[in-house]
Design a protein that fits this description.
Bound molecules: flavin-adenine dinucleotide
CATH superfamily of the largest domain: HUPs
CATH architecture of the largest domain: 3-Layer(aba) Sandwich
Order of helices and strands: EEEHEHEHEHEEEEEEHEHEHEHEH
Number of strands: 16
Distance between the termini: 55 Å
Strand order of the largest sheet: 9-8-7-10-6-1-4-5-11
Strand content: 25-35%
CATH topology of the largest domain: Rossmann fold
Length: 329
C-alpha cells in the first residue's frame, strides 16, 4: 500500500500535528508493509521539505506555487487532486486541524470518495484497515472501514499519536521530488485576509507541553492567581474546565473538552476538576495526567497517572514554592 501524508504549515511554521500524523503513517506502514510519501505545500517551502526528508519516509513531495502561499480551500483542492492523480496513493492521511476540516472532505468528495475524519486510532485486521473514531462526545468509539477502491482519506485527532515517536530516516535523507502544479487564480474563489486572532494573547493550547488546568474546585476568580503562579513556576499554560470559562473567569480559548480544545501535552495537571466525560475527551491524550481533588471517588482519578486526594489550596502554594526553590538552588 502507498500512504501519502499531507503536512501543514501555519504562518511559516510546522503545525506539529503533522508529525503526529506522520507517526501514525509510520505505524500503519510497519503493520501493512506500506511506503510513505510526505507532502509539504506552500511557497518557498524547500527548508521544510529538507526537514521532512530526514524522517523515515520513502519520498518527500514538495508542492510549491505562488498561489499556494496563503491557504485557500480551492487552491489546496486543485493542487492536491493533481498530486493524488500523479502519486496514486492508496491512503491519504491528514492531521485533523481546522484547515483540514475545511478542505479535505471537499477534496475527497471531488474525487468521488468519502473521508473518515477525526480518528483516534486504527487496527489492521484480516488484511483490512479499521479506523476508530469517537461518537456521542467520546462516550463510545466506532470502528469504521472504507468501501470501494482507493484512494481512501482519513484524518487523525490531535494527540492520537505521538509526534516525538516519528522515526528518522535510516540512510539520512529521503529523496525530495518537486511536483509541478497547474493552478490559475480564476480557480480560487476566496481571497485570504489576515489570519483571525480573537485576542493578541491568543494561545494555542494544543502545542503547550505543560498545562495547569483548573475546575470548579478553584471556587472563586480571586483564587485563580494561585493557579497562574503555579503554571508560571512549572512553565505551563493555564486552562480550565467549562464552568470556569462559562463564568468568564478565564477566556473561552482556555477551555478544554468536547466544546473546547483537545490537547495532548506532556503533563496535564488537573486541579479541582471532577473528570466529566466532556472534559476528559479533551485531555485524555496527555502523556502524564496528575489530578488533585479532595474527593477520592472523583472520576478524574480513573484516568490519572498520579492522583493526590487533597485540598488544592494546600497543594498549589506548596508546589509553587517548591518549584521556585528548586529553580533558585
Ligand atoms: C454538551 C456539553 C458540552 C460540554 N463541554 C464541556 C467541555 O468542553 N469542557 C468541560 O470541562 N466541560 C464540558 N461540559 C460540562 C461537563 O459536563 C462538566 O459539568 C464539567 O466538566 C465540570 O467541571 P468541573 O470538573 O470543573 O466541576 P465539577 O464537576 O463541579 O467538579 C469540581 C471538582 O472539584 C473538587 N474540589 C472542590 N473543591 C476542592 C478543593 N478545595 N480541592 C480539591 N478539589 C476540590 C470536587 O471534589 C469536584 O470533583 C459539557 C457539558 C455538556 C452537556
Amino acid at each position: 500500500m502507498k500512504i501519502l501524508v499531507i503536512t501543514e504549515l501555519r504562518q511559516g511554521k510546522w503545525n506539529n500535528a503533522s508529525f503526529e500524523t506522520l507517526a501514525a503513517a509510520q505505524q500503519i506502514a510497519a503493520d501493512t508493509a506500506s511506503t510513505i510519501g510526505a507532502a509539504v505545500i506552500g511557497k518557498n517551502v524547500s527548508a521544510f521539505g529538507d526537514e521532512l526528508s530526514t524522517k523515515n519516509v520513502g519520498e518527500v513531495l514538495q508542492i510549491e506555487h505562488d498561489l499556494l502561499e496563503a491557504y485557500t480551500p480551492d487552491a489546496y483542492c486543485v493542487a492536491l487532486a493533481q498530486v493524488i492523480s500523479s502519486a496514486k496513493p492508496d491512503l491519504v492521511l491528514f492531521p485533523h486541524t481546522y484547515q483540514v476540516r475545511d478542505f479535505a472532505p471537499k477534496l475527497a468528495a471531488s474525487l468521488g470518495k468519502g473521508m473518515i475524519g477525526d480518528c483516534i486510532g486504527y487496527r489492521h485486521e484480516s488484511g483490512k484497515l479499521v479506523f476508530v473514531r469517537q461518537m456521542f462526545q467520546g462516550k463510545t468509539a466506532a470502528d469504521v472501514t472504507f468501501q470501494g477502491n482507493a484512494p481512501w482519506f482519513a484524518s487523525f485527532q490531535s494527540g492520537a499519536f505521538r509526534a516525538d515517536l516519528v522515526a528518522a530516516h535510516p540512510d539520512g535523507k529521503a529523496p525530495i521530488n518537486k511536483v509541478a502544479i497547474d493552478l490559475k487564480s480564476e480557480q480560487i474563489r476566496t481571497k485570504p485576509l489576515d489570519l483571525f486572532k480573537e485576542a493578541k494573547s491568543a494561545v494555542d493550547l494544543t502545542q503547550a507541553p505543560i498545562i495547569v488546568s483548573i475546575g470548579r474546585g478553584i471556587k472563586a476568580p480571586e483564587n485563580i492567581p494561585q493557579a497562574e503562579a503555579l503554571a508560571k513556576a512549572i512553565g505551563g499554560e493555564i486552562a480550565a474546565s467549562r464552568p470556569i470559562c462559562d463564568e468568564g473567569w478565564l477566556p473561552m480559548e482556555r477551555q478544554i473538552g468536547s466544546s473546547g480544545q483537545t490537547v495532548a501535552p506532556k503533563l496535564y495537571l488537573a486541579l479541582g476538576i471532577s473528570g466529566a466525560i466532556q472534559h476528559v475527551v479533551g485531555m485524555k491524550g496527555a502523556r502524564t495526567i496528575v489530578a488533585i481533588n479532595k474527593d477520592a471517588n472523583a472520576p478524574i482519578f480513573e484516568i490519572a497517572d498520579y492522583g493526590v486526594v487533597a485540598d488544592i489550596f494546600e497543594i498549589m502554594p506548596a508546589l509553587t514554592e517548591a518549584l521556585e526553590k528548586s529553580k533558585s538552588s
